[in-house]
Design brief:
This protein is mainly alpha-helical and about 325 residues long. About 80% of the residues lie in helices and about 0% in strands. The C terminus is likely disordered.
Length: about 325
């Protein structure tokens, strides 16, 4: 109960301390009134595609474990759990619990539902890392000498990341060609031990047999959807920035985006509210954007990627509750 009050106090203190450095309201309003509506519409479409990619990631992981799910229910679940994560205290945990129960209602066993939750989180983080590596490779290809001189360690790391990704995909394809179709094994999850680290290790050990029983094609497609999910979300930010005439290239915005999203993985606030806005604004201004247009771009991006999702998610949540009334969760 003290956490929301503490966040309010910290937010008020930050506003008071930074009151002379906040963007001018007149500049922000001028940027909003002179924005390009077509680029804003493109940003909205890109964000819709991003959420659709995340829904397809869940759908393919479930299909890989023998749970047939259509894109409609997967989209409804994605919007619902996103709204829960943004609005509820301990939203990430409540969102995960809601997704787990939804998977169970769709016919997934306890092992399959847990496996999808674990793989989805792992692939989302891996997809962000892949996007960062590919983006840095593009920078290196544009000017290898400058990239090596400025960031030799990052350049070597990006090269090793590309080689590791190629090796991982190749090994997965070769393994699938040699394997014979087997049923997805069932495992008992048992009691979760006390302690976050112990519980995480126990969960990974429990879901590993189920994950290995899934055909690699489903895992590769799910990872691809995770990368496209992040990339289209980045395209939303780029379109909104272009709508407000920010003098930043797509590569610059990509660097800003990846850094902010990595910071977002630390669950300080629900949905990253406050953290993402402040980080994006500071990064854009540091990259060369004016404060007023940058603030307008941050507001536009967060409107599409966060605030509009709340009413849409609450609506789909009501639909899912109505459709699941009277449905009994399977024993396995």
């Amino acid at each position: 109960m003290l956490r929301p009050a503490l966040l309010v106090v910290l937010g008020a203190a930050a506003v008071f301390l930074l009151r002379d450095r906040l963007p001018d309201a007149g500049e922000v309003w001028f940027a909003i009134t002179t924005a390009s509506p077509w680029w804003l519409l493109l940003g909205l479409v890109a964000e819709w595609v991003s959420l659709a990619m995340f829904a397809r990631q869940q759908m393919w992981l479930l299909r890989g474990l023998g749970v047939a799910v259509g894109i409609g229910p997967a989209l409804a679940m994605t919007y619902s759990r996103s709204a829960i994560a943004i609005t509820m205290p301990a939203g990430s945990a409540m969102s995960a619990g809601f997704a787990y129960q939804t998977f169970r209602r769709w016919g997934a066993s306890r092992e399959a539902a847990t496996t999808v939750m674990v793989l989805s989180g792992a692939f989302s983080l891996l997809g962000l890392v892949v996007l960062f590596v590919l983006g840095y490779v593009v920078i290196v290809l544009e000017d290898p000498g400058a990239a090596w001189s400025a960031h030799p360690v990052a350049t070597v790391g990006a090269a090793l990341g590309v080689l590791a990704l190629i090796a991982m995909i190749t090994a997965s394809v070769l393994r699938d060609r040699r394997r014979t179709p087997v049923a997805v094994p069932a495992v008992e999850l048992g009691e979760v031990p006390a302690g976050r680290i112990a519980s995480m290790i126990a969960t990974l050990r429990a879901v590993r047999p189920v994950a290995l029983g899934m055909h690699g094609r489903y895992r590769r497609i799910a990872l691809l959807f995770a990368v496209v999910n992040w990339f289209t979300d980045l395209c939303c930010l780029a379109a909104v920035a272009h709508a407000f005439h920010l003098p930043l290239t797509f590569v610059q915005l990509g660097a800003v985006y990846v850094v902010v999203q990595l910071v977002r993985q630390i669950p300080v606030t629900p949905g990253g509210i406050g953290v993402i806005e402040a980080s994006l604004l500071a990064a854009m201004v540091s990259a060369g954007a004016a404060q007023g247009p940058a603030a307008a771009a941050v507001l536009g991006y967060r409107l599409f990627s966060c605030w509009l999702i709340i009413p849409a998610g609450l609506f789909t949540w009501a639909l899912l509750r109505r459709s699941s009334s009277g449905v009994t969760v399977p024993a396995r």
